[in-house]
Write the structure tokens for this entry.
Amino acid sequence: MNAVAPRRALYMYEQVGYEAAVDFADQHALVALLFRALMQALADSERHTLSAEFAAKAQTVTKAHDILSGLRSTLDFERGGDLALDLDAIYGYCARLLLKAHVANDPSGLREARRLLGSLESAWQQVPAQLAAAAGVQ
């Protein structure tokens, strides 16, 4: 069997999984999916940078940048106040890190972005439990 075929099948399965999840996701779950895809794109970008796979690196850095733009577009500055402004600043900073890492072929910016965004992803995953606790739901 061709070694590429199982990878292609896995990729197609993952895409169907993401598409199906997006169809049924609420807004919170959708942002969680964006974070998951972003973290994967950053990991892939680092791997491609380290292995000098420049075309693949360019694709994954672009994907990560596009997802960051998507996350920024979800911010509600009227209702979110300072939190929305802070998140916007973090997303902007991470976008600049991606650009620098891409141009310099230096994975340190990708690692820094993963660290910062990983912290946000972890916090985001805790939101449903915190809301349920605040509402008195077990």
Residues 77-104 form the longest helix (28 residues). The chain has a mean pLDDT of 85. Helices lie at 4-24, 27-50, 54-73, 77-104, 108-135. Residues 26-135 form a domain with the Four Helix Bundle (Hemerythrin (Met), subunit A) fold (CATH 1.20.120.340).
